[in-house]
Structure formats: C-alpha cells, structure tokens
Amino acid sequence: MSKKQSGGLMVLFGATGDLTSRMLFPALHQLYQRGLLSENFALIGVARTKMADEEFQEYVRESVENGPNFEKLDETFLERCRYLTTDNTNLEDLKELRKKIELLSKEFETPEEYTYYYSIAPELYDETTTNIKEAQITELKGNHRVIIEKPVGDSLETAKEYHQLFLEVFNEENIYFMDHFPGMDFIQNILAVRFFNPLIEGIWNNQFIENIQISLPENLSIGTRGSYYDKAGVLLDMFQNHLLQILSLVAMELPDELTTESIHANKLKVLQNIPTFSKEQVEKKVVRGQYKADSEGKFESYRNEEDVPSDSNTDTYVAIELTINVPRWEGVPFYLRTGKALIEDYTAIDILLKPTDAIDSDVPTRLTFMAEPAQGLSLVLNQKMPNNKYEPLTTFIGPDKETFEDKYIAYPYENMIHDALAGVRTNFPTFEEIKEQWRITDSILSVWEEMPEPTFPNYRANTFGPFEAEELLTKNNHVWIKRI
Questions:
Q1: 218 and 80 within one domain
Q2: Residue 447 in this model has a pLDDT that exceeds 70
C-alpha cells in the first residue's frame, strides 16, 4: 500500500448498496482518519434513493460505526460526504452531477483528481459510462479514473464488451478492476515471504512440494444476496476472480524486483499456462454443489433463500483440481475450493511438502499462509520425540498473534482504494489477467451447460461440503487440510 496522502473527489455510484455500506464507507473513513486522505478530499454518494445531504451523512456515520477497524468517528470526514439523488440512465441527472462535482471541488479545493466507483450492477455500466461522457463530466480538467467491482461481465465475451466501453471514456491506465483479495496484507504475504526468504523460494518447486491447496470456505449463507447470487453462483463469485488471483501469486515466477510490471507479467504467464478444461477434465476434476438445510436449524436450504427460485441449480460450492504447464510445477496438483454455508470459515493457502518414507504420519509437513481469521505464517514440521529413540513428534509453529498485535492491519478495501487514488496498480488485476481468468472459467461453464442437470441440493449446510470433493483428492492419495 502506498503511503502517499491523496486528495481529490470521488463519485460513488450505488451509494446505498450493501457493499458500500459494509466496506466502502468504513474503508474511506479509516483512510481519512489515518491521514492517508487529505483535507482536500470530497465524496459524492449517488443512488436513486431520495435523500438530503444530512440524511446521507447519518447513513455514512452508521456504516462507519458498524464497520471494520472502527474505534472513533472523525466528524470532519462526514462533512466531506454529500449526496445526489440520481438515475444513472437519465442524462439530465448526470448533468446535475457535474454541477455538484464542480461545487464540491471548489468548496474543498480538491486537486484535479476524479474517481468514479462503480458499486452497481453490471447492467448499469453501459448507460452510466455513456452518460458520464455525454454529460461532459470527464471533460473537467484533470485526471479521471474508474474503479469497477468484480466480476467484470459474466463471460469472456461480455468482459471484452465492457472493457471496450470503459476505453471509450477512460484511459487504460485509469481503469481499475477491483478484486479485494489481493489487497489483503496476508495474501500479499505469499509473494513477500518468497522474496524475503531464499530458503522458502529454494523449495518452491515440484522437487519439494507434493500439492498446493487454496481454501476459502465460508460459514455464511448467501443471506439477502439471492437476486445477484443466483445469476452468478460460486464459480463466478469466487473462483473466476479471488481464487485465480491468489493462485497466480502462489505459482508465479519470482521476479528480480517486485515492480508492478514484473508482478503482472509473471502472474499473467501462470494464468496463460493453465489449460482450458475439456469435458472429460470437468467431469473428473470439478465438483460443484448446492447446500440444503442443516439438521440444527441454522441454515435454510439454498432454494428457500430470499429471491432464489425453488428449482434453482445454481452452484454454492466448487472444488477444482488444476495443473500449470510450466517446468516448476510439473506433476504438482493445485486444489482450489470455496463454498457457502460450510462448517469451516477461513482463508488459507497450504503448501504441502513431499513426505519421507521415514515417517508414517497422518499430519503432512506443510507451510501455510493464513489470511483470515488467523493471520500470518504457520509451519507443521517433525522433530525428535524425547524418548531416546528416533521417533517423530509433529510440531506446530505459528501463526502467533503477538507478531502483529501492535500493528494496524488495514482492511483490504482500505489498501485497494488508497492505491487506486494514488495511482498504484500493483494489486489490481490487469484486463489481460481477467481475460485468462474468463477463458478458464468459461471452459467449465460451457461443459456444465452440456451436462445433465445436477442432483441438487447435494450437501448439508454446516458440513465440509459434497462428498465428491473428498474423492477429488483421495484418488491422488491426498486429503484436504481441515481446521475443525
């Protein structure tokens, strides 16, 4: 994350949405409170809901006080938050937005830096972007950038269409595709540990590594997101972006210097070397699932969730085995899994080292990157049992809270928003990366469309997920690392 203090004016489209309330307002407040947003910063919230500035400021206050990392409210932040009732599809409303931008720019003497945050449904991208241009907002003197939430489109074809649309209004270097997982300090830790420790990088290959597991299980159901989630499913919501971005950081070649250009170039090579899935590979190496109610009454069946059709075949769980066709990873399977309403809830990357015949143990030697809720590195090693014999004793090392207890750990949206305002693109996926992510994802989706309808629901909520996900690994004599 850049330490540069940023100013300017942000227009937040979708200002009354769930993501904005839970994540964006708290992140902006924390940046302001930490001195990373200057006094010359202003925010205009934009949505269809009718609201006065004062009502909006109270809405922001409530969001901030209920958000992550909150300790004390900085009232001067609220003064910089204004609102405009706007229909993005109405050109006249966007002309009014331009007037409000000019007024606030003068009031807070903001630098000529304008950021448009799209926390809106993709179907609004077209008219919103076109009307920004037609209202001559981007003709205001200065730099204009746009931040777009994932996923970009619902296929490679639509992603290309949206990208072309953005290019008609914004310069390529000013288009920021938001995936907040690379903004996590403890996801960035993957690359940092390799770079800082030659010992780790020395074993980062198929000579020493048996398999790699990237796990993002969630104990939450879809909640009130049914209308969005049923169109996307977990494959588009999590695999196409978060999981593949993490994978690219794990598997990339380590550059001589951690520059934005070298990191993106090496991440792209990883994605380009993941083969397109064939029908046979999808049938053998992809497991999908949908949850049903649990026996304890904690979770409803997915098909009974709000705004979900009673016969929905949308996936809420996926586990995938894939390979990367480069010499470093020849013969090493990568296992990726994520799902809703599971018994586990964490983000972790497990690097499982090759076993030795000298040890018969059910606990594999491994290096783990914990991102949440536990954070930092952990190791599972073997040392000698103190019984005068050479018997192994499995030893667990870290992660320890003491290492980070006096450190401020920014929420990922803090890191990503500030980097965008500072013009730092390192943790934002490039469109070339996104294209490869869609190529891989589309190949799975196209096979699913040809296959018979799945037998859903196929896993009970508050469990580890479908039984077939266990078989995905056992056929290779591997097992998932579990934390319960």
A1: no
A2: yes
